[in-house]
Every structure is written in C-alpha cells, then in structure tokens.
Amino acid sequence: MLSAGSEHSPLEGCSSTCQSTVAIWMPRAIAGTNSSCSCNVNSAKPENGYEMIWDPMSRRKKKLWDAANQIHTQKDEENDENEKLQEVVSHKIVKAERSHCASMGGKKSKEATSKDMKFVGRKSAACEETVTSSDRIRKYVVMQFGYNVLSLARQGMIAPPEELWELTELQKLNLSLNCLCFLPSSVASLQNLVVLNLWGNQLTSLPPEIGQLRNLKVLFAYHNHLTDVPEELGFCTKLEVLSLANNQLTSLPDSLSALTSLQKLNLSHNNIVYLPACVYAMKKLVFLHVACNRLENIAEHIQALADLKTLIVEENCIHSLPKMLCCLTKLELLNVDYNDIQNVPAEMHQLSRLQKLAAHPLDKGLHIMHNPLLKPIKEVLDGGLQALYNYLKAN
C-alpha cells in the first residue's frame, strides 16, 4: 500500500494547482517522469528507494484517507482486545469445568485438547442436568411430624421417575392413584423408608428387592392386580401395617410368618379360600380383615391371635364358627355377617367385650345378621346380645 506522506507547503512560483497538492512517497521507478507537477520542481532527496512527488490530491481527500485508515486501525485494535478477552474467558471456563469434574470424580490432564474441552463441557452439562432433575423432585419433599415425606399421588405416572431413587433421605413415599404397572428394583435404594403407599395402581407384582427395606413399617398395596406376594417381604420384620386388599391373591407365602411385629392386616376382597398359615404366627395382630373372599371356615389356630380386637370375615362362605374363637377375649368387634352360619358356639358368652348386636359396619359388637341361623337362635337374637348369651349359657 502506498502511504501518504506529510503535508508539504506550496512552493513559491508554482501554479495554483500545484499549491493545492500534497506530497506522497512513491517508488523511484514509478515517480521518475510521471510527476504531475507542471512547474517541474525537482523531487526531494530519495529515501530508501522512495521519492516524494507531488500528487494533485486535494487536502479534503487526504483527510478522508487518514480518517479511514484511523478507523481501520481502531477496529484492528478492538479485534485484538476481543480475542485476548475471549482467550481469558475460555481459559477460566475450562479451568472451572476441570475443577467441577474433578470434584465429581473426573480425572483430566492439565493440557486438554479441543476435543477434551468439548467432552468436559458435555460431562459438566450432564452432571448439572442430573443434579437439576434430582432437585426438581427434592423440592417437593416436606417435613411432617419429623419425617421426610414426598407425595407423587395422582400424577398419571406409568413408571416412577429415575431420579426418585436418588432421594435416599425419604421416609414416607406416596405413589398412590397412578398407572404404575411395575415397581423397579431401584426401590431398594430407599433404605430409610418407613411408609410406602402404592394403592390404586395397576401393579401385578412387587419386586423381590422390597425385602431390603428393613425399616419399612407400613405398606399399602391395595387396589392393584397382585396375584402373589414375594417371599422376600418376610425380611421386612418391622412391618406393623400391611394392606393387600382388592387384589387377586389366593394365599400368602409362609415366609411372612416372620412378620411378628405386624399389628394390622387387610386381605379383604381377594380370592382366598383358606386363611394362610402364616397369619396364625402374627401374634401381635389386633386387626384382621379378610372379608369378601371365599373362606369356608376359620381354623382352630385362630386362638393364637390372643391380642386380636377386630376380626372381620363378612361375605364369605363360612358354615360355622370354631369354639377356639371364644378364646379371643379381647375381641371388641366380630363381624360374621353374610355367611352361611347356622349355629354359634355355646362359649360365645366368654367374649364379654362384645357388648351389643351391631348393625352399622363400623360399630363395635357382634355382627351376625344375614346368616341362615337355626331356630330358636334367630328369635333369641331379637332380644339382644345378652339374651343370646343367656340362652347359650342355659343350653
């Protein structure tokens, strides 16, 4: 590029045209005889192969020339500063990503290539997404009565979110009234779980890993499509409440005999023909609900449940009540409505806590109506429970 020279004052004796010119430096070979100065003034002394000649460029054009060069120079300087700033920012970002990934267990060399930097960026973004997803659920965890509680009920879920199993601090989890078809084995990671609510789903089975929830005390799995119960559930020896009502169960595994802390068991609305043997080993039961099954009798082993206060066996096919039932002196509610019972044991008067003939399903007392009772028992019952007891004692 030809560089503009310093402005030269007009020479004496030159024409007006020459007086309005400016001097520029040009190569000697070009300058030679091509000087446009009409006054044939000798060129200045050559300098480094260049000569200063006079060019008929107006002062205004030269100023525009200089201004344009100055703008380009400023832009070049700004670009250089921006590039340096980008380098500094990129260095800090890479350094921060390395530090973050190192804290997450990643190992990176000090001099990362451009591919490595992209990998680090992707890994950092993945880590951030995982944390964000987990926190998205964690923010719904609340403290209630000293327990970490999370309710995801009525969410229309087909499967629980994977991030859920990272919340190991959970103690009460409500997944009820969804569309869950299975419970993943990942549930075993919730080792602190005390209450698990699964009712109102479409579960056909429970995973064996549920037996690893050793702190579980309450399990609601009613209103599902369960056809069996895993034997591993017997490892949940702290269970106190178990509801498996409204399923398709025909029995329970013998391993549930280990549930010696169980106090309330609901097996109503299933297809059970015989009361499972494991039930008689649950010595702390105070509530047993097996209504609406296909039971034909109650075994004499029922006497083992000495602490039983509520026994509901309505709407079955029971023909008679065993004498050993009268050993359950703590019974406050006995419901045998809608069966095929014709006679009652003479020892029924020993159940002194059954204080009346009850009509409402929630009333305490004896529910024995809607059975084909033989005479004169049916007529005696019209006089109340005490009249029945007096009749049984006299006969």
Keyword list:
leucine-rich repeat; single chain; disordered N terminus; alpha/beta; eleven-stranded mixed β-sheet; repeat; 3 domains; LRR_R13L4/SHOC2-like; Leucine-rich repeat, LRR (right-handed beta-alpha superhelix); Leucine-rich repeat-containing protein 30; 395 residues; rod-shaped
CATH class of the largest domain: Alpha Beta
Computed Rg? 47 Å
**Quaternary structure of the protein:** single chain
CATH structural architecture of the largest domain: Alpha-Beta Horseshoe
Can you summarize the main beta sheet?
Answer: 11 strands, mixed
How many runs of DSSP E, i.e. beta strands? 13
Q: Can you identify the CATH superfamily of the largest domain?
A: Ribonuclease Inhibitor
Average pLDDT: 79
Structural class: alpha/beta
**Secondary-structure element order, N to C:** HEHEHHEEEEEEEEEEEHH
Percentage of residues in DSSP E strands: 5-15%
| Total DSSP helices | 6
Q: Which word captures the global form?
A: rod-shaped
Low-confidence stretches: 1-55, 103-132
Number of domains: 3
Termini distance? Answer: 133 Å
CATH topology of the largest domain: Leucine-rich repeat, LRR (right-handed beta-alpha superhelix)
Helix amount: 10-25%
Walk across the major sheet and give the strand order.
3-4-5-6-7-8-9-10-11-12-13
